Amino acid sequence: MNFYAKHRQTLNVGRHFKQTFRMKRQIKKWTLRLTATVVLIGGLLLIIILNPILTYASKTTHNNYTVFHNKTLDPTLLTKLDQATELLKASEFYNPKLHLDICLNDRSKYPKLMRTLRGQAFAWGFYNKVVLQGNTNYQDNNVELNSYKWNLTQLLAHEMTHCLQFDKLGFWKSNPVANIPNWKWEGYAEYISRQDADQKNLSKNIARLIATKKSNWQVTFADSTIVPREYYESWIMMQYCMNIKKMTYKQILADTTSEQNVTQEMMKWYEKNKSERTTSYWQ
After folding, report:
1. pLDDT tens digits, residue range 21-74?
2. Does residue 282 or residue 48 have the better pLDDT?
3. Sign of CA dihedral 72, 78, 79, 83
């Protein structure tokens, strides 16, 4: 190879190196810009999520609650909050000093934001926030979503219980981060919120589930409000563990018994209890 050929080869290598260097520097620049944009958007979302007042016209303080709303607040809601508080007192995680934000679905962008981030639901409870997403009827005490109704007082207590879980367990030991089995997470919220007279008897609760068609995604109560079947099953399992086995919620969280085995234990108890009641009736 003569001198000129070697020189051209050296120049080509040099150009290739420069192009590669420029491309890497450009990719790095794009990556940094994209990362900065994602961090900025994430930061703005976090600020909005932690400060609902940014998307609401008004707020009303009632005991340990701050209610964020756009329309004139129906005072009936305050009564429902007090009733939900009474239900919460049954929880071993109850904290009378915990302050909660209640975010109403009255044309605010906040519930829409939560629906975008977490999906459609009757309501969401996380950190110290309860966000109602369905249409609320304060006088009839229900929240309607897709033609189904959830008891408002019990829904508030359910979502507030999640806030108690966050408060007591901390972020890293709470769902979704901790990946606690859903029957333990949602079942406990149902256990605390379902304290009506027709909901306290476990045998009757199991019988109600058995009487519900398996094709139904929901179970219906006497007041015509519903609960998703999965939540109902989680609730009666929690009721069995806490009322029959006399376990605390902390013990249930630590217990490694599978969901399937708990269900089998509960149904054996139910059949035995039903048999004893029948025998007692005919004696």
Report:
1. 677 777 877 777 777 777 777 787 788 888 999 999 999 999 999 999 999 999
2. 48
3. positive
**In the chain, at which residue ranges do the beta strands (DSSP E only) sit?**
58-62, 65-69, 100-103, 123-126, 129-132, 135-137, 142-145, 148-151, 218-220, 226-228
**Sequence ranges of the domains in the chain:** 56-282
Apex CA 263: angle with CA 119 and CA 90, to 5°?
65
Quote the tokens at residue 95: 């904290």
What is the predicted pLDDT for the residue at 253?
98
Q: How confident is the model at residue 266 (pLDDT cuts 50, 70, 90)?
A: very high
How large is the average pLDDT for residues 193-210? 96
Distance in angstroms (rounded) separating the CA atoms of residues 163 and 108: 22
- Positive or negative, the CA dihedral 175, 179, 181, 184 is negative
What is the pLDDT at residue 39?
78
DSSP 169: H
Is residue 68 within 8 A of residue 104, CB to CB? The reply is yes
Helix-helix angle 76-88:182-193, to 10 degrees: 120
**SS3 category, 97:** coil
CATH of 56-282, one of 2.40.128, 3.30.870, 1.10.10, 1.10.390: 1.10.390
